[in-house]
Amino acid sequence: MSEVVLEARKIFKDFKDPIIIHVLKDINFTINKGEFVSVIGRSGCGKSTLLYILSTMDTDFEGELLIDGQSMKNKKEGELAKIRNEKIGFVFQFHYLLNEFSALQNVMLPGLKLGKYSDEEIEYKAMQHIKKMNIEKIALKNAYQLSGGEKQRVAIARALINDPLIIMGDEPTGNLDKKNGDIVFNIFKELTEEFNQTLLIVTHDTEFAEKTHRIIEMEDGRILKK
Amino acid sequence: MKLIFKIAKSLLLARLKQTTVAAIGVTFSITMFIALLGFMTGLNDLLDGLILNRTAHVRLFKEIKPSENQPIDISKKYLASYNFVSSVKSGSNRKEIFNSGPIINAIKKDNRVLGVGPKIIAPVFFNDGAIEINGSINGIDVDVESKLFFFDDYITSGKSASLKNVSNSIILGKGLADKLLANIGDVVVVTTAQGERFSLKVVGYFQSGIMELDKVQSYASIATTQKLLGKSNNYITDIQIKLKNIERAPAVAKEYANIFQVDAEDIQTANAQFETGSNVRNIISYAVGITLLVVAGFGIYNILNMMIFEKMDSIAILKATGFSGKDVKQIFTVIALSIGIVGGLFGLLFGFFLSLGIDQIPFKTASLPTVKTYPINYSAVFYIIGGIFSLITTYLAGYFPAKKASKIDPVEIIRGK
């Protein structure tokens, strides 16, 4: 359990527009393999900003980010995209699915992009993940026909398709009702317990956070408590 | 790459109506481009053909002019002196080309030459009762004239072969025949410059498309013309040469003038105005065609821009899940190019049909006896240019929106919600 998956070293970030705001100040922490970590804090405390930096999508910061022991510094956009594709799975607050595709195709897309397996294998794997989410009934439906809870489960299946090192979630339950929120939480829990999946979830739902292994609490761009 | 196409296809099909409109824009402009150029060039060819078909690429002849080297210039005794000769007159050199037989044979062997034919131009008066109408008889080798200069195309009644088969026969220009009130089978009387009178039988009319020419020109066989002029059967005043490549006419003319010691005139010098005219018309048609394509390009640009605005979320999610900016750019470029290819192909097809349609419209004019419908040029070059242009414009129209899409910051989109 001591294998470090993600490490943040002295991360600072400023918003310069319209006035300089220090969004993140001296963020240091590590996440080990198999950990289920939640980041909590009031809105505006910088937790989402931190997540986007950790996800490599936001490269405009100071400090160092290591994923799987590799520094993300000075990497090109294309290389970062590859890392996101291969090592990071995403689940957003709003269920970002491609409406032009079916649920199954949405799950398959990152796999097809990675191109490690054949199309048939990816389809099989995607179907396995969909079954794990108990949504095989809607696998062939178009994304826009799904309910919010279903969409979020499709998004989780999509995050899993490339067996990522870490799954990041930005308020994955924030837009769901209690019942669906619980379903999603249980899926996360199952993933971490049964498959030793590393999870980093940003949330403002303290009830959700309390059930995770570790809570990182943030305030005004600093980490209060680990 | 397969995946890029798959995503592009899905995005395209999701906005089928918009993309169809964009493709129709391309189709319309390519259609008009093809039809316009085909029609314009058809007309150009027709107008140029009026003169160029009937004109030799290189014409060899003897100009009547004073000798450049007067005897005193050649004399060794006065080489160091200035010689002044007053009142120089053209010498007694004849219009005849000496050694015409060997010259024609030598030219025939030149592989740049498509064909060569002899010609005699004889100025004559046509006698109609008391009036004399001046005109000229072109003595021609009928077979060569038909083959090289499309003589048959311009004969409105009668047959060119009759010139060979009927002795002392003549084909009159339509205008001339009208003046002389000469019907086919009638006999017309001509007086040569030497004062000889001759009777010739009218075996046909010809119409060159240029009225002025038709009022004075007529054609007879070489042998008849020689007889008319009282010359031997090697008397020839012109040698007409048609080349395989018309562009080489000036060079060839210069060369022959040197080798054969005759005067030579190339078609470019003789008819410079035609080339200028057709060039300008071509430029106009290309300009109009390209303008149409550019307008279609802006249509594609707009639609792609709109699509990118609508698909911001999708682009963000693609990027978040591991698609690079380059991939996104490729997706939108593929979309633009598919619009271009499909629109362009239909455009080429419809352009061809429209050309066929124009080709059916009756177009009759007194000066162009062989033309029954509007002329169209079906040259593959226009189709190739049209195709390439549709690709280039759609690529450029897609390039900027695609670049914009590739620059979209997923964080901004995802946070913005």
Strand content of chain B: 15-25%
Provide the CATH top-level class of chain A. Answer: Alpha Beta
* Most strands sheet of chain B: 6 strands, mixed, barrel
The whole-number mean of residue pLDDT values of chain B reads 84
Any idea what the radius of gyration of chain B is? 33 Å
Determine Rg of chain A (CA atoms, Å). Answer: 17 Å
Structural class of chain B: alpha+beta
> Would you identify the CATH architecture of chain A?
3-Layer(aba) Sandwich
Mean pLDDT of chain A: 83
Would you tell me the structural class of the helices and strands of chain A?
Answer: alpha/beta
Largest interface summary: A-B, 31 and 27 residues
How would you name the oligomeric state of the polypeptide chains in this document?
A: heterodimer
Residues in β-strands, percent of chain A:
25-35%
Kindly give the count of domains of chain B: 2
Give the spatial strand order of the biggest sheet of chain B. 2-3-8-5-7-6
